[in-house]
Amino acid sequence: MTKTWNKRTTAVHGGTRRSQYGEVSEAIFLTQGFVYGSAEAAEARFIEAGEDEFIYARYGNPTVRMFEERIAALEGAEDAFAAASGMAAVSGALTAMLKAGDHVVSARALFGSCLYVLEDVLSRFGVEVTFVDGTDLEQWKAAIRPDTRAVFFESVSNPTLEVIDISAVSALAHAVGATVLVDNVFATPVFSRAIEQGADVVVYSATKHIDGQGRALGGIILGTRSFIRKTVEPYMKHTGGAMSPFSAWIMLKGLETMSLRVNAQAASALAIADALQGHNGLARVLYPGHPSHAQHDLCRSQMGKGGTVVSLDLKGGQAAAFRFLNALSIPKISNNLGDAKSIVTHPATTTHQRLSEDQRAELGITPGLIRFSVGIEDTDDLIADLRQALTAAG
Ligand SMILES: *Cc1c(COP(=O)(O)O)cnc(C)c1O
Q1: Euclidean distance between the first and the last CA atom of the chain, given in angstroms as a whole number
Q2: What pLDDT does residue 122 have?
Q3: Which residue of 37, 96, 237, 249 has the fewest C-beta atoms within 10 A of its own C-beta?
Q4: Which atom of ligand 1 is nearest to the CA of 110?
Q5: How far does the centroid of ligand 1 lie from the alpha carbon of residue 76, in Å?
Q6: Residue 150 burial (CB count, 10 A)
Q7: Ligand 1 pocket test, candidate residues 207, 343, 345, 363, most atoms within 8 A of CB
Q8: Ligand 1, pocket residues at CB < 6 Å
Q9: 62-75 and 245-276 helices cross at what angle (nearest 10)?
Q10: pLDDT on residue 1
Q11: pLDDT single digits (tens) 130-147
Q12: Alpha carbon nearest to ligand 1 atom 1, residue
């Protein structure tokens, strides 16, 4: 039934399960366990649980299941498993499928915690990881080997907003039978068509645009039914990264308004990138949805729109960046993104502080770089605030 709906309808109604009371808003089943009618029923459920039969909230829960089914329908994935955070989803998806001796190729420009999992954790368990510049197909071609098990990348990188060609990288990976895992946070489920473009597994931090109002942590792993139920579920249910039913309810409500929020944020982001282009206090204005971006065409064909984040590189380095941040009145200095509230981050001293200066330079994370997650405030108010802060910084 849900297959014929477009995304906006799916985001409101997909996966809904009503109790005997017929509630309009999804129920929160805040329960760890479930009562069995008889000893035989308990035994039968442990042998094989049916569609609407649950055992323990670490394995699954009706509210969590609604969220999984809604986002799977939205993404065009066969199934999904919800996790406690975006990182529980990223590390769960990778560790569920990998074993010692496996080879992984990953883009180098990653969210800090993703880099930690790929670089530090997997190698401790005997997984070999080769890092490449994700925008350079020649590097992917050279790094992917006949024994490569998986490739991993963020389709739009954080915080320098490089776009990675999902179709092209997937074709290279599939030629050797490798699984393609895409962390698609910056594309958001609104603009993502990652599965039809070749991704096997898509992961989101639901903390970002899915909640969209800065309340709860969450993550989701999307893929084929067999990958989710045979590879991911056994690993996640026994290692404990489950999403709480309360968080699942927040995420369900977040999905209902996500398309309206994200489209408004993307329109504002484009207007801001356009207004600030060529400003004499800025060395670079990075926004994949703006024609000035090096991969604008790829962004257009892959995502349609440019997403909700604009990165600004101030000419005066860290001192100017700090003056700019401190002079802003609407955007808040924080490190989340995808929120209804505009949020500004100085990656070099916060999210990417752990990296060496050389690593930051390699990734284009300069001392003047600011990541601006555009909220749903009035666009003209935001532009006026950014302009006065740039004057104060300069
Ligand atoms: C935030 C983020 C994560 C981690 O998500 P959490 O919910 O904070 O654990 C992973 N990948 C990307 C690209 C992110 O932006």
Answers
A1: 56
A2: 97
A3: 37
A4: 13
A5: 21
A6: 23
A7: 207
A8: 85-87, 90, 111, 113-114, 154, 158, 183, 185, 205, 207-208, 217, 219
A9: 30
A10: 45
A11: 999 999 999 999 999 999
A12: 205
CATH of 2-254, one of 3.40.50.280, 3.40.640.10, 3.30.390.30, 3.40.50.1360: 3.40.640.10
DSSP secondary structure string for all residues of 7-35: HHHHHHHTT----TT--SSPP----SB--
d(CA 139, CA 134): 8
Q: Which residues does the chain have with pLDDT short of 50?
A: 1-2
Domain ranges of the chain: 2-254, 257-393
- pLDDT of the residue at 4: 83
Sheet of 201-205, strands arranged across:
79-83, 219-223, 201-205, 179-183, 148-154, 103-107, 128-132
Cβ–Cβ < 8 Å for 288, 161: yes
pTM above 0.85, yes or no: yes
Q: Which two tokens stand for residue 328?
A: 């802003």
The per-residue pLDDT for 3 is 62
Average pLDDT for the chain? 96
Question: How many Å lie between the centroid of ligand 1 and the Cα of residue 336?
Answer: 9
Residue 185 CB coordination number (10 Å): 29
Cα separation of 365 and 323, whole Å?
18
Those residues whose C-beta lies under 8 Å from the C-beta of residue 326, and which sit 6 or more positions away, are none
pLDDT computed for residue 217 by the predictor = 98
β-strand 282-286 against 219-223: which pairing, if any?
Answer: unpaired
Strand partners, 313: 284, 369
| CATH of segment(s) 257-393 | 3.90.1150.10
